[in-house]
Design goal:
The chain is an alpha+beta fold and 425 residues long. The chain has 2 domains: 6-122, Fumarylacetoacetase, N-terminal domain (SH3 type barrels, Roll), CATH 2.30.30.230; 130-418, Fumarylacetoacetate hydrolase, domain 2 (Alpha-Beta Complex). 17% of the residues lie in helices and 27% in strands. It is built from 9 helices and 26 strands. It has helices spanning 6-18, 50-55, 75-79, 82-96, 106-109, 137-147, 243-249, 331-339, 367-370; strands at 27-31, 38-43, 46-49, 113-115, 119-122, 130-133, 164-166, 172-174, 179-180, 183-186, 195-198, 202-203, 206-212, 231-238, 241-242, 263-265, 270-271, 279-280, 300-301, 304-310, 317-323, 350-352, 378-379, 385-386, 394-403, 406-418. Strands 6, 7, 8, 13, 14, 16, 17 and 22 form an 8-stranded mixed sheet that branches. It binds manganese (II) ion. The site of manganese (II) ion has 6 residues, from loops.
Length: 425
């Protein structure tokens, strides 16, 4: 480890903890010396070149198109169905069962394992559509209190349906892509007229998102009981938010330019099947939901979520610890609600949970909540105080699950803030 930067050591340790023999997530990336992205999986600090593994016979005899893993995104592979992804996971598990993810000999034993620092990870899927929900009771309550101090913090519809809006798919980027501070209209409380300026209240939203694995038909709802068949897997999601722009624009139609300048996903899609052991019962829903939202069994997930803030030249500092278990509405209800009117879903679509805030201080999934609208700044290890993000700050999300000797994680979902354009218009 000597000579290795703190960040690289930290990232390597995260990969070795997250990409276990149980996981085998799917991603895309450009291997050093290559020109275009291809399909990958991961084991420890190695990316798995799926095309090379196939050619080496690791995946057995396959009828799939010869170049299925040489395409820049996974959409065509995902379209083969869960049998295909489960077969790949099983074959990779068989091939690597006797090895530990931190085994230093792995790359010499298996030429289809590529050290992670020789790969530039890219968007794993083409995203046709993106929707953002608002499924955390604690987050909705915290925000309701801030924006509507008098009266019930929850609006009357909140406990009856998973509230959501259609977001912008074109600006979803993969972890590691810089996010430029946006310009926009804001109206300061003490001003009579709006001003045009770079956002002063740049925030994060800690979210958990699913990637659709199967097209549904226009006009045909997806029922809660069949929803998991339509979900290929999950990623961490940062719904970067400009609160001053959002506050001035959101009524009457909801989020727009305060959100659509960029959202970051973690590069590895962890499959629905890999997450099966980490399913838990959700919260009791009161009042009872309408019949089309009813579902049974453990449909929430127990995945710890960490938020790190890293200032230039410093190590990442942990600023929030939450968990996907705090979602009030589960993914089956989200998908059933989204399609109950006949709206169809498409392979590669991303559906994000909404900010996940825990019911305790220090578990909030956004800076506006963590700092009480800026009134209680976060103090970092070097004494620096932060309310909202400054230029060159980096935010990392991490997600990790452990149960009955099984563990897995999502790697990092990271983004650094670039300064605003000098003359945007
Ligand atoms: Mn959001």
């Amino acid at each position: 480890m000597e000579g290795m930067s703190f960040f690289k050591q930290w990232y390597k340790a995260i990969c070795e903890a997250d990409f276990t023999i149980h996981n085998f997530p799917f991603g895309s990336g450009i291997i050093r010396g290559e020109k275009s992205p291809r399909s990958l999986s991961a084991f420890g600090y190695y990316a798995i070149d799926l095309h090379a593994a196939r050619q080496a016979g690791v995946l057995g005899n396959l009828t799939w198109s010869e170049d299925i893993f040489l395409r820049p995104v996974l959409n065509d592979f995902i379209a083969l169905g869960k049998e295909a992804s489960e077969r790949v996971r099983k074959k990779l598990q068989d091939a690597l069962a006797r090895y530990s993810p931190d085994d230093p000999d792995l790359a010499s034993l298996f030429p289809w394992l590529i050290p992670m620092d020789h790969v530039q990870l890219t968007m794993p899927v083409h995203v046709p559509n993106y929707t953002d929900f608002y499924s955390s009771l604690e987050h909705a309550t915290n925000l309701g209190r801030m924006f509507r101090p008098d009266g019930d913090p929850l609006l009357p519809n909140w406990r009856h349906m998973p509230i959501g809006y259609h977001g912008r798919a074109s600006s979803i980027v993969v972890s590691g892509t810089p996010i430029r501070r946006p310009w926009g209209q804001a109206k300061p409380d003490d001003a009579a007229e709006p001003v045009f300026r770079p956002t002063q209240l740049l925030d994060i939203e800690l979210e958990f998102a699913f990637v659709v694995g199967r097209n549904s038909s226009l006009g045909q709802p997806v029922k809660t009981q069949e929803a998991l068949d339509y979900i290929f897997g999950f990623v961490l999601f940062n719904d970067w938010s400009a609160r001053d722009i959002q506050k001035w624009e959101y009524q009457p139609l909801g989020p727009f330019l305060g959100k659509n300048f960029g959202s970051t996903i973690s590069p590895w899609i962890v499959t629905t099947e890999a997450l099966e052991p980490f399913r838990i019962e959700g919260p009791v829903q009161e009042p009872a939901v309408l019949p089309y939202l009813r579902c049974e069994g453990p449909l929430n997930y127990d995945i710890e979520l960490n938020v790190y803030l890293q200032l230039p030249g410093q190590e990442p500092a942990l600023i929030s610890v939450s968990n996907t278990r705090y979602l009030y509405w589960n993914v089956c209800q989200q998908l059933a609600h989204h399609t109950v009117n006949g709206c169809n879903v498409q392979i590669g679509d991303i559906y994000a949970s909404g900010t996940i805030s825990a019911p305790y201080r220090g578990g909030e999934g956004s800076l506006i909540e963590l700092t009480r609208k800026g009134a209680e700044p976060i103090t970092l290890p070097d004494g620096t105080k932060r309310t909202f993000l400054q230029d060159h700050d980096t935010v990392h999300f991490r997600g990790f699950a452990m149960r009955d000797g099984l563990s897995l994680g999502f790697g990092l979902c990271s983004g650094r803030i670039d300064p605003p354009l000098e003359n945007p218009v």
